[in-house]
């Protein structure tokens, strides 16, 4: 945890309460040793005494510490503190918040003034969305450059996935999130499909979730695979044609994860576009898919990825099969995708060459 100094406190108090603010004293309050049988806590509060234009005031400042319960990163902890700031005063008898702020990289304590929503500014990149290339190919226009693009994308993934991290708890968190997060599998099942679903029965959803529990326990044996990831590597997050040939947008769900997540994301979209081919899988899209997969496997030597891909295909398959996210699919395309996510869970090792069989 970051150590708070008198200079940091005084700077913050003056910024938050005005130039007439003076720090009087500060010290620990409610240390973890004074919590009885509860030996685990999320932070150590600091009692601060100060004056504003001569009026005495006091406050308790808390900084969360990182842990393996979903608080590994400062943005995890920021979410908890923002929740408390926004909601505590609305609960009868609850302690009332006096302010919220952050500690900058230069060691300053800075206030946030009544936050309601947050935003980010990014640079403007040149290029066009990669899905436009896939649409063009789907309509019959195919070139050698399209094959090279698929290889380049796989090569980029191989490069970023080469950065490894030894943190079994974080790997397990990512697997929990994959299955149970509102953004991922169970959230999609609940919110991205109408229930009862006309084309996928409740019993099929139940069986899908039960199989995923088995996969969850299997994947806990692969914690050594944790690496740097993009997190949302699909054709709408890739810009083609810029000065670097391609660029990527919208990194999601954390800096570290299972490389199969990125690999499956783009592969699933090649499968989606390949299904738009009058009943027979597109040979052009198969070419892109195989180029992409084989380039990745050749560059990484990671054949083990085929042992862990299935649940990640379920996640991405649910996205692209959803009537909420993709309302205009022909029913035969949607049915094929739902068969794919069911059947892919049946194999211990993903058959990336004969992948069409999972849709039968």
Explain what this protein looks like in three dimensions.
With about 350 residues, the chain is an alpha+beta fold. It folds into 2 domains: about 5-110; about 130-360, Aminoglycoside phosphotransferase (APH), C-terminal lobe (Aminoglycoside 3'-phosphotransferase, Chain: A, domain 2), CATH 3.90.1200.10. It is built from 11 helices and 10 strands. The protein has helices spanning about 5-15, 75-85, 130-140, 145-160, 170-180, 185-190, 200-220, 260-275, 285-300, 310-320, 330-345; strands at about 20-30, 45-50, 55-60, 100-105, 110, 130, 225-230, 240, 245-250, 255. The strands form 4 sheets. The chain has a 3-stranded antiparallel beta sheet, covered by helices on one side. Strands 6-8-9 form a 3-stranded antiparallel beta sheet, with helices on one face. It has a two-stranded antiparallel sheet with strand order 4-5. The radius of gyration is 25 Å and the shape is elongated. Pfam families: APH (PF01636). This is Aminoglycoside phosphotransferase domain-containing protein.
